[in-house]
Amino acid sequence: MKSTRIVLAIFTALCCASAIAQTATPASDAMPGMNMEQHAPKPTDVSSTAAFQAADQKMMSGMSGVEYTGDADRDFVAHMIPHHQGAVEMAKVELKYGKDAKLRKLAKDVIAAQNKEIAFMKQWLEQHPPKH
């Protein structure tokens, strides 16, 4: 019992230290002449970042908005449709902002493949109405 309390105390201390470290603001005067903000990674294209974030949010919202039915097939398809649509949206962001020719080709391929799969899944849902 005593060893369990010691382990819990150590675990609690480590968790607290981790939380403090994650929320602590770095001191700008920790090293004279060093501005910590200059070393934080910054996105090179905030427009593409905003577009990716919007696509991510739309996908997650679409997936979380689908209720589970207990029918594995319907649940799989219903949740995969917004997931695949998210892939299409992200590929469109790559086409709009991306520069790499191979990635742009991949994005075009993703759009074609995902749209084909989305059409199949929607058709499957229509052909397999929910069981009541």
From TrEMBL:
What organism is the protein native to? Caballeronia catudaia
Residue runs in coiled coils: none
Please state what the protein is called. Answer: DUF305 domain-containing protein
Region of interest: Disordered: 27-53
Q: Which UniProt keywords apply?
A: Signal
Q: Where is the signal peptide?
A: 1-21
- The answer, when asked if Signal is one of the entry's keywords, is yes
Domain DUF305 per the UniProt entry, residue ranges: 17-125
